[in-house]
Amino acid sequence: MSGTREAGMPASADETLDALAAGTHSDPFSVLGPCHGPHGTFVRTLQPGASGVTLLCGTGLELPMTRVHAGGIFESAPVEAASYRLRIDWGGSSQEIDDPYRYGPLLGRDEIRDLAEGRKLRLAECLGAIPVAIGGVEGVRFAVWAPNARRVSVIGSFNNWDGRRHPMRFRHDAGVWEIFIPELSAGVLYKYEILQHSGEVQQKSDPVARQVEGPPATASIVAPVPAFRWRDGAWCAAREARADRPLSIYEVHAPSWRRHPDGRPLLWRELADTLIPYVRDLGFTHIEFLPLTAHPFGGSWGYQPLSQFAPLPALGTPEELADFVDRCHAAGLGVILDWVPGHFPTDAHGLVRFDGTALYEHEDPREGFHQDWNTLIYNLGRTEVRNFLIASAVFWLETFHIDGLRVDAVASMLYRDYSRQPGEWIPNRHGGRENLEAVAFLRELSAAIAEDVPGAMLIAEESTAWPGVSHPVEQGGLGFTHKWNMGWMHDTLRYVGHDPVHRKFSHHDMTFGLVYAFSERFVLPISHDEVVHGKRSLLGKMPGDAWQRLANLRLYLAFMWTQPGKKLLFMGQEFGQSAEWNHDAELNWPEAATPEHAALRLLLRDLNHLYRDAPSLSCTDFDPGGFRWVVEDDADQSVFAWLRHVGNDPNALLVLCNFTPVPRERYRVGVPLPGRWREVLNTDAVEYGGSGLGNLGGIDSDDRPAHGFAQSLSLTLPPLAALILRAES
């Protein structure tokens, strides 16, 4: 008989059986299943509520088992059998099962060692619920990290959610509990019941579940082993070569982009049919989704996730998400996910005091509680927690072929005093405010991704002047591939929010970003955070009447798309949605169809295509040699002009922006090349909803020096408009 063991009785036999029946025994595998007794090997099983149990030997022998405890403990007579099953009489119905307690340890020594040392990056292949076959028997292997629990059981509909029925084996070296339950399969609902040393019992969702119920339900779901057939091999192989190519990102909150008439969000297959062609037509290179990790509160937009390995269930299955990504790649679109390793919510079924102790979080609220968000902060000084998070990042990139992760709220991770008053935080070991554990974690994260998923992006939402966020770790940086330029965003939005008559007093807001533009690999973001919570939509930030607001927005988008840095725009801003974003409703698509808003979308499309097609705009985003101010000091007229070029490229682009509603006739600007300069794009063009003022047909340079050049142009600058010109070769 496999897996036999001594019938361990640490106390008296009666006390052991009492503890087993009460569900408080900490080592059930020592007293259940095949056991050695004074008269030979016998089988013990715990079946609370059963009327009787029969041992079915592989030889065909059937042995009624004896009830030895009123709590449902049965024992067989001594028996020799290579395998066996149990027939349980429930008093009116019967059930045959394979006994989970006849199986030996499940996780191998190498897995246990890697878990203990935090070197198991493919955590979902080890922990969680995994359909497997052992000795030809199909079932599900469960494993969970809970080192300080007194007892952990798997509960579900298969055992009436009774924690006495399937207590797990404890692997001391890694603090992991495990069990194989035969004859379960994908789709089964389950949780872990955890008996704390305090005596309190809690039901917890699986931290490494790959599928979960949607709120308000909280159970985990046994997911099938991923078997999606990918068709994007060439795309993934070429990711490293795309590192410095155009990056223009359409940021999306998937549940509220479009909805069915009854308010239901579109499913992944429906988004594939609608969102992909829409974004591709607009000329974006990537779609970035607000967090898709499952979360209990929709109003958090996903930024308070509990399931770091399970996709949002409201949009479809994990396989349908994989198909969406595959179809994006087939259409030439990359996919980026927002990912949240800084904090998690306090929902009782989640990670909070998971095994009765501060396991994932810090014990001291000065380190472990986010006052702004009422969330808990991961204890990044703990090896297993770092491994859990890094494994989550690698899981999304590898399992779903995601092209990059945008890491949320990095500043809150880097500083121990983030949003705290004196006395509300604990200094680091050197007495400083820097979170040294978070720095080490982020560097370890970037190294792991670079090694395991070459070419994947790691983008930081970091709002401070922390040095070297997007510099390599070996150069003292954090190792991110890109960083959001929050300073540029705040400065420029403040400027365009002023009435044009006052803009000359804030002229530096539009030029200051170039002082540090090449210190990091920046993304210029206009994100969801800027168009919600009373901040108004992007169009709503613009001053003036209806025509001026749209003109201001056209000008601002052209300014953004021609400045150094990659681009990100939140959904709805491409057509100038008037209202703030509402996560409970779809975008205002009727407004998008009106002529003036459709014209704005056309401009954004043309800006994207120009950005992608003109090397001087996209290949020099991180190269100071590709940008030159021509006019940066004309505050009185609120005019700016600059060149974008690649080396001595004769196809350099000249950009001029007039941030007042006053047309500028015969405005002189120096140019590096003689000859005719032709408008490539004019945001005041009639097709974009403008007045049609400009320099049709182009304009010839003359020999009048200006702005350090021997040649110059005398141009008409339309009101509240941007011009992009190129010298004719």
UniProtKB/TrEMBL annotation:
It is an enzyme of class 2 (transferase). Its EC number is 2.4.1.18. The active site is at residues 408, 461. Pathway: Glycan biosynthesis; glycogen biosynthesis. GO terms for molecular function: 1,4-alpha-glucan branching enzyme activity; cation binding; hydrolase activity, hydrolyzing O-glycosyl compounds. SUPFAM superfamilies: (Trans)glycosidases, E set domains, Glycosyl hydrolase domain. InterPro entries: A-amylase/branching_C, Branching_enzy, GH, GH13_cat_dom, GlgB, GlgB_N, GlgB_N_E_set_prok, Glyco_hydro_13_N. One of its GO terms (biological process) is glycogen biosynthetic process. Keywords: Carbohydrate metabolism, Glycogen biosynthesis, Glycogen metabolism, Glycosyltransferase, Transferase. Residues 251-605 form the Glycosyl hydrolase family 13 catalytic domain. It catalyses: Transfers a segment of a (1->4)-alpha-D-glucan chain to a primary hydroxy group in a similar glucan chain. One of its GO terms (cellular component) is cytosol. It comes from the Bacteria. It holds the Pfam family GlgB_N. Monomer. Catalyzes the formation of the alpha-1,6-glucosidic linkages in glycogen by scission of a 1,4-alpha-linked oligosaccharide from growing alpha-1,4-glucan chains and the subsequent attachment of the oligosaccharide to the alpha-1,6 position. NCBIfam families: branching_enzym (TIGR01515), PRK05402.1 (NF003811), PRK12313.1 (NF008967). Belongs to the glycosyl hydrolase 13 family. GlgB subfamily. This is 1,4-alpha-glucan branching enzyme GlgB. It comes from Acidiphilium multivorum (strain DSM 11245 / JCM 8867 / NBRC 100883 / AIU 301).
